[in-house]
Design a protein that fits this description.
15 strands, alpha/beta, seven-stranded mixed beta sheet, globular, single chain
């Protein structure tokens, strides 16, 4: 591995080394990173800035979340104004007007039929909220025996107990024990043998949705509350659903009275050329989780959108009873709502919720131009997302991907890696010359990898 130290330190004011810092970094190789840190000190548009004056092109929208680009003036101003006017309101039995306005704005761009919004603070919290809503919904309807939750292998649904349990990435689960009882998983859709180098949705694999039927036979469908999947499994390496797969999931769940949850924490807010990924696929779930691009990542926020019948199921009891005993101190936080409203305005004014559809053909050609380079065993793309899968090195799985990440940063590009898979999803404001630069850097990196 490349261990060359970079000059960045904790900050120009201290000049202190990172090696003994108190910060326990999440999802990071702490010891490896602190020996050769890659620090970002500013951002604008599609670029990050470093302390030594370098401009790093952001190839993955921060963490799949800065859809409108960094430090947008309208969003910054909205946050500043709100912080000076109303910094916090308790979300239990009180509220702020913007929470109601923001919810109403969200359902206007949501898939038809999803009419209610429950606010959280992250994708992880949105997922656990959706799972609890599903369980509560069935109980409110007299079907409290529906307690089982179905996830998918290689799925990522955040890091809270419920989301980790229904998630299917082994490395995220193995040290935490049983997590949550009553969870099972259908197979993932990744099929290199039949679908390598597909453009858009692969042709083979719709039948994998029938795994839900297998679990219905095993557990009895009347015990299953919900199935949760990402329309595109991005964190696992951009696993694009085969043609007909999501439609088949919808039909099976409908037939058995099982709620279908789409985790759109990444695919919402323009990533696939529509406000929500489900609109691109033409498949409407019962609940949608979202976060990340909901505020352009400027303030943490998440949300669950649900069908009207789910909301109404909770409204059948006494008027002076709490219908949903769930929520967070920072649900519908005033700063998050202000950021979210300003973000929607930026999306609308600049046509960003549909721009990925315009860039898709150019992006696709650039991505697949990498075919034939050393160690490249697959390329996948959909919307403004792409993945380049690499053969593992002799040193072990993930080593080649990490080396690609480090070398790209040294060449002034930030790319996300998942094991040996490079994932790209830049801000939706990216221009074609910047797309060229991003892929040129990836090409140079691929040519030099051991």
């Amino acid at each position: 591995m490349n261990e060359r130290a970079r000059p960045e330190t904790v900050g120009a004011s201290t000049g202190a080394s990172l090696e003994n810092s108190a910060f326990f970094m999440p999802f990071s190789m702490n010891r490896h990173f602190k020996k050769a840190p890659r620090l970002l000190t500013g951002a604008e548009g599609v670029y990050y800035h470093t302390a030594d004056g370098r401009k790093i092109i952001d190839g993955t929208s921060g963490l799949w979340c800065v859809n409108a680009g960094h430090c947008r003036p309208k969003i910054v101003a909205a946050i500043q104004k709100q912080a000076a006017k109303l910094d916090f309101t308790p979300p239990f039995q009180l509220g702020n007007p913007m929470a109601f306005e923001f919810a109403d704005r969200l359902v206007k761009i949501a898939p038809k039929g999803l009419t209610r919004v429950f606010f959280a603070n992250s994708g992880s919290e949105s997922v656990d909220t959706a799972l609890k809503l599903a369980l509560g919904y069935h109980r409110m309807r007299g079907e409290g025996h529906r307690v089982r939750l179905i996830g998918r292998e290689r799925g990522y649904h955040g890091v809270n107990f419920g989301g980790t349990a229904v998630g299917g990435i082994v490395g995220n689960r193995k040290i935490f024990g049983a997590l949550v009882a009553g969870v099972d998983h259908i197979r993932h859709t990744h099929d290199l043998e039949r679908n390598a180098f597909s453009r858009g949705q692969p042709k083979h694999g719709a039948e994998l949705a029938d795994d839900v039927e297998r679990l219905c036979a095993l557990h009895d469908p009347s015990t299953i509350a919900a199935v949760i999947v990402e329309p595109v499994a991005c964190s696992a390496g951009v696993l694009v659903p085969p043609v007909g797969y999501l439609e088949r999931l919808r039909e099976i769940c409908t037939r058995h009275g099982i709620l279908l949850i789409f985790d759109e924490v990444i695919t919402a807010f323009g990533r696939l050329g529509k406000p929500f990924g489900s609109q691109h696929f033409g498949v409407t779930p019962d609940l949608i989780t979202c976060a990340k691009g909901i505020t352009n990542a400027a303030v943490p926020m998440g949300a669950v959108l649900m069908k009207e019948e789910i909301y109404q199921a909770f409204m059948g009891g006494p008027e002076k009873a709490i219908e949903m005993p769930h929520g967070y101190t920072y649900s519908a936080h005033p700063l998050a709502c202000a950021a979210g409203l300003a973000t929607l305005e930026v999306y609308e004014e600049e046509g960003l919720l549909t721009r990925a559809a315009e860039l898709w053909p150019y992006w696709e050609e650039q991505a697949h131009s990498l075919k034939g380079l050393p160690n490249v065993i697959d390329i996948r793309n959909i919307g403004l997302i792409a993945a380049i899968e690499l053969a593992p090195s002799a040193e072990g799985p993930g080593r080649r991907g990490l080396e690609a990440h480090v070398r790209a940063f040294e060449k002034d590009a930030y790319i996300r890696v998942s094991g040996d898979i490079i994932a790209l999803a830049p801000p939706l404001i990216i221009q074609k010359p910047e797309i060229d630069r991003l892929f040129a850097t990836v090409r140079d990196v691929l040519k030099t990898l051991p």
